[in-house]
Design goal:
Four copies of one chain form a homotetramer. The first copy, chain A, is of the alpha/beta class and about 300 residues long. Chain A has eleven helices and eight strands. Chain A has a single domain, classed as Divalent-metal-dependent TIM barrel enzymes (TIM Barrel), CATH 3.20.20.150. In chain A, helix 4 links the parallel strand 4 and strand 5.
Chain lengths: ~300, ~300, ~300, ~300
Amino acid sequence: MNKLGLHAFVWTAGWNADDATRAIGRTAELGFDLIEASAMDYAAFDVAATRRALEANRIGITMSFGLTDDMDVSSGDPGRVAHGERHLLDGISLARDVGATHVCGILYSAFRKYDTPPTQDGIAGSVEVVRRVAEKAQASGITLGMEVVNRYESNVLNTARQAVRFCDRVGMPNVKVHLDCYHMNIEEADIAAAITQTGDRLGYFHTGDSHRGYLGSGSIDFGCVFRALVASGYAGPITFESFSSAVVGQPLEGILGIWRTLWDDSRDLAAHAKLFTDAHLHAARQAWRHVPDAIDPD
Amino acid sequence: MNKLGLHAFVWTAGWNADDATRAIGRTAELGFDLIEASAMDYAAFDVAATRRALEANRIGITMSFGLTDDMDVSSGDPGRVAHGERHLLDGISLARDVGATHVCGILYSAFRKYDTPPTQDGIAGSVEVVRRVAEKAQASGITLGMEVVNRYESNVLNTARQAVRFCDRVGMPNVKVHLDCYHMNIEEADIAAAITQTGDRLGYFHTGDSHRGYLGSGSIDFGCVFRALVASGYAGPITFESFSSAVVGQPLEGILGIWRTLWDDSRDLAAHAKLFTDAHLHAARQAWRHVPDAIDPD
Amino acid sequence: MNKLGLHAFVWTAGWNADDATRAIGRTAELGFDLIEASAMDYAAFDVAATRRALEANRIGITMSFGLTDDMDVSSGDPGRVAHGERHLLDGISLARDVGATHVCGILYSAFRKYDTPPTQDGIAGSVEVVRRVAEKAQASGITLGMEVVNRYESNVLNTARQAVRFCDRVGMPNVKVHLDCYHMNIEEADIAAAITQTGDRLGYFHTGDSHRGYLGSGSIDFGCVFRALVASGYAGPITFESFSSAVVGQPLEGILGIWRTLWDDSRDLAAHAKLFTDAHLHAARQAWRHVPDAIDPD
Amino acid sequence: MNKLGLHAFVWTAGWNADDATRAIGRTAELGFDLIEASAMDYAAFDVAATRRALEANRIGITMSFGLTDDMDVSSGDPGRVAHGERHLLDGISLARDVGATHVCGILYSAFRKYDTPPTQDGIAGSVEVVRRVAEKAQASGITLGMEVVNRYESNVLNTARQAVRFCDRVGMPNVKVHLDCYHMNIEEADIAAAITQTGDRLGYFHTGDSHRGYLGSGSIDFGCVFRALVASGYAGPITFESFSSAVVGQPLEGILGIWRTLWDDSRDLAAHAKLFTDAHLHAARQAWRHVPDAIDPD
C-alpha cells in the first residue's frame, strides 16, 4: 500500500524547531503517512526537532534537494561538479540523520531555466556524481528519486523515458525515477502511458494539478493517473506538492514562478489533497479488482 | 450549496418499513443530505416508516419513477397514455406524502429498449401528460426532472438539448432537465458543454461512472463534470446512482443489464461516493474562485 | 502498418451486385485498404460481384456476422446452439468465398438485450462452438475477432479482459480480441489501459465515437486511443463504424437504437473518418518515436 | 469560417527575401490561409519580398512580436516602458506595411522568466502603452491579440480571465484575447471552459500540443478544444505553432527551452497540422449541428 505524503512547503518555507514541529504535527493530524521536507540551507534545518516531532507523531519523512548554478553537476565544469557532489553528499548525511527513506528532486543538474541543451560530457559527469551519492545513500537504506521536471526547470530529464535511461547509466538499485504530474502534463506524450512504461523503475511520485493549485481544480485527469499507478503495481510514496506565495514568499515564489495566489488556507488545501487522493486511489483499486463472472468463475 | 444524495438501490431494491429505516439511516450516517427512492410498486412503499426515518435522521428525499410499456405516455395509444398519466399522478401523491422535493426519471416514455423512433404525435401526447403531472406537482412544491437517458433506455430524450426543448414545450416552471453522467457519456458530444448549455434549466443531477461502478473507476473525467456544474451555477441536488446485482437482483439486474458485479459492499461504495463527490466539488469551487492580482486587485 | 477499413453500413445495408460495386468502389476511392461487410442474410450477399469489385479496386475485405436469439450459441439450448454453429460455419464459407481475412462481431452469443446473466454451461457451449468455427476458419487463413460489446448488445463479453479469458478457453491461435471504442467507452475502466492490457491478443479494432457519429464529434479522447494502439504494437486492421437511420433504415435502426440522424452524407462522413484516422495515427507514431538526446545519443 | 494559419518558425527563424519566399510558398502549398511571422529584428525583415510572396500565393499574414527586458512595458521604469512602446509602434508600422490583419504575442510585458510578481503601477503603465499601440493599429485595421502565456514566459497574463480584464482596462475594440493551447494546458483550470468564458473577446488562437510537438502526439484533448471554439462561435484565425531546435537554433531554442528535437521534417509536421486541424474542426462543427427529431422537427 502506498504511503501518502505532503510537501512541507504547504505549511512553511523555513525549518527551524517551531516550523518542523508545527508542520509535522499538522501533517500527521490530517492522516498523512509522511512529510517531504525540502532543505535548501542544511544549517538552518533543525534535525533534533524534526526527529522528535516525527517520533511523537509517528510519521515518516522524505527529503528533496536542489542544486544552484554553482553546484551544477551536469555542467562539465570540475569546480561546480565537485561543489554539487559535496552538497548532495551532505544532503544524504542530513537525510540519514533525520531518518529519511527517500531523497528526491533535481539531483542531476541545477534547478534553473537553462539557455543551452546539456552536453554528453555534462551528462556523463552527472551520472558519475549520482552514482557516488547513491552509494552513500545505499549505506543508509535511502532511495534516490531522479525527478523528471519541465523544460523550464532543467534541461536534462524532462521525460520518464529519459529518466529510465539515466538510471540505467547510473546502474544502482536505489536510484529510481521520480515522476510528478505537474511536469508530466507539460512534457509527456501521455501521462498514464509514461507511468505504465516506467513500471518498476518508478520510485517516488508527486501529485499536483496542472497549475499547482488544489487537486482536481486544474486540467489533469486524475482518474487516468491513479489507474495507471495501480495498474503498474506502484507501491511507493505518493506525495502532494503545491505552492502558494502566501506561504513560501521570496525567493521561492520567484524561482517557481508563482504569480497567482491559488490558495491561502494551508490546512484546507492539505486536508482536501488527502481526501482527493484517498478517493481516487480507492477508485483505482476498484477499477482493477477481479470480478468473477461466468467466463472465469474463480 | 448543492445537496448531496444517494440512490436507495445502493442499499436495497425493496421498501418495506425495515428497508426504509435501514437505507435512510445509513444514508444519513454517511453524511448525505437526501436519499432518492425509486418506487415501482407504490403499494409496497411504506410511507409512514419513510417519514419517520427521514425525520429521525434529518435528511430529505427525492423520488424517481418509471413507466412500463403498458403505461407508455409517448406511445400515442390513448389507453396506455391514460394508464401512464394515472401512474404518474399517483406517484406525485406518493411523493407529496413522503415529503419529496423532486420527482425525476424517465417520466415521458416507457423505460425500455425501443424498436422504432418516437412519433410527433407520441411526443405531443407525452408533453400534455407531463404538463398535467407538473401542475399537480406544483401544488406540492415538487420539481419534476426529465431524465436524459441513453438510446437503450428510451427513444425520446437522449440529449440535454432535446430535454431543454421538451421542457420548453411543456412550459411549466417546475419541469426541469435531469442529467446523468452515465447516460451523457454515451449520448452527448461533450459532457461539460451539455451541462453548461443546459444552464439554469438543469434541475437534478446524477453522478455515476461510465460502467456504473465506483466513481473514478471508469472513464468519465469528473474534474470536467464538476467544474461545469459549478461554472453554470447549479445549486440543485447531486445524487449518486450505482447498481449491483448483489443488491438489486432480478428483475432490475435484467432491466438494467448488470452482468458484472462491480461492487458488493454497499457501505464502502456509498462512503466512497460521498468522499469523491466532496473532493471534486470542493476542487471545482476552488477552480473558479476569484484570485486577486495586480490586474484587478479588488 | 495498420490497414484502414470502413464498415459497409456507411454506404448501404443491402449487398446486391449494385450495392457491393458501389460501396467497394467508393471505399477504395477514399483511400481505405479494406471494407467490412456485415452479412445478415447470406443468400442476399452477392459473392461474385463482391470479388469482382474488390479485385477491380484492389482493396481487401473483412466480414462481421451476428446471431439472432434462435441461433444463440451461449444459450445452453442444444437446438439453438446447433443452429448458431451452422450459421457461423456457413458464414466462414461465405467469408472464404469472398476472400475475407477476418471475421468478427458478436460470434459467441446472440446480439440482443438480455434479461439474465450468462450461465457457466452456456459459456462452455459457446467456447466449444467458437473453437470448431475457428478450426474451419483456420483452414482458410481467417482470423476470428470476438467483439467486445456493451451490456445492451450481449451479456457475455463486455470487457477486454473477459474476451482475453474467453480466447484463452477457446485456445486457437486465430481467435483474437476485437475491441470497439464505442463499446469500450461504456464498459471499460480505462480505454487506453484496456488496449494496452489486451496487448498481442488484439486482432481487430473498430473506431467510432461515443454516440456513433463523426469521429471527434463525441466524448472519446482519440489521442489516448491511438497512442495506446501504437504503444502496444498493434498492426491489424482499424475499421471505422458509424450508423445512420438515413442509410440503414429498419430493422437495423431499431436493433441499434438509432434515434437521431447524426449524419446523412455518407461520403463526407467516410472521407472525414479517413482524414481523422490518418491524422491521429500519424500523431501517435510521432509520440513514440525515438528522439536522440545527450543522455542516449544513439 | 476560421482562417487556418501556420507559424513561420516551422520553416525558418530568419526572414530575408529567400526565407520569406520559401516559407510563404510552402505554407500556401499545404493549403493554409495565412502565415504568422515573428519579427524580432525589424530591419532584417524583408517587407517587399514578403508582400510579393503573399500576393503570388494569395494567402494572408499575421505577425507576432516580443519585448526584451530593456523594453518591458510592464516594468514601471519610464525608460524601458518608452523603449517598449517605440518598439511596438514600429512593429505596427511593419505589420501595416506587409498587410497584416493581426499583431499578437506578449505585447504587454517582456518575454522572460520573471523573478517577482508584476506591480499595479507596472500593469497600469502596460495598459496605457497597449492602448496607444492599439490606436495606431486601429488606423490600419489591425487587431491586437494579448497572448496568454505560462508563468515561465511572463508574470502578467497567465489566464484567459486575466486577459479579459486587461482588455477591459485597455478599452479598445481592436484589443482581443489571444489564447494558446500549450500555455492553457499549464495555467487554466479547464481549457474548454476558458475558451467558452472568453467568448467574443477571443481574437486569435494558437494550436500546439502539450510538449509543442505534433498535434495529437501530446496530452491535450483536442476534441474538447475544437468543440469549445465552435460552440463559442469563434470565427478568427487558428494558427499552428511548434518549435524544433532543428529549425530555429539559438538563441530561440534557449529562450523557448527546446531540449528535445521532437521533429525535424517541417513539411511533414505542417502538412499533418493542416490535416489534424481540418479533421477536428469538421468534427466539432458536426458535433453542434442541428439534428431534427420528433421533439422539434423543424
